[in-house]
Design brief:
Helices cover 55% and strands 0% of the residues. The chain has seven helices and no strands. It is mainly α and 139 residues long. It has one domain.
Length: 139
């Protein structure tokens, strides 16, 4: 996985184009994936022995669908609306890795944290409906 955008001499990262949270998510997708993978490997022992391709799996598609759900111009209401990518990701995680259910939950918690941090860092905080958009409502 490639490293995130480099900071300039002042220590700040370049601001990406686009004003909406969905635009910021897409502009920072590689960085989000990199941070997520780095934190996942530290937090979940089973992740340490898995290749990057297995860990990342369908997550880029999930992020694309989340951005669509966050965009008022797109008809998708949630990241999982009309898609089985999230279910496929979970199923493959269980079949192809040594992840336990709690590891799967931890990986999604880490993703939510990284998304909130990166979007907030770029002045596009996670909208109130983002948890619903991710299909991770705590109801």
């Amino acid at each position: 996985m490639s490293s995130p955008a480099r900071a300039d001499a002042s220590g700040t990262r370049p601001r990406e184009q686009g004003s909406s949270a969905a635009d910021r998510l897409l502009a920072n997708k590689e960085r989000i994936l990199w941070l997520w993978e780095e934190r996942l490997r530290k937090a979940v022992a089973a992740a340490g022995r898995e290749p990057s391709l297995i860990l990342v799996n369908t997550l880029p598609a999930v992020l694309d669908q989340l951005a669509e759900a966050m965009s008022p111009e797109h008809p998708r209401k949630t990241a999982t609306d009309g898609s089985t990518v999230g279910q496929e990701h979970g199923g493959e995680r269980v079949r192809l890795t040594h992840f336990r259910l709690e590891d799967l939950i931890t990986q999604y918690k880490i993703l939510r944290q990284v998304l909130a941090e990166v979007l907030e860092e770029h002045s596009a905080s996670l909208p109130g409906n983002a948890t619903r958009s991710m299909g991770l409502s705590t109801r």
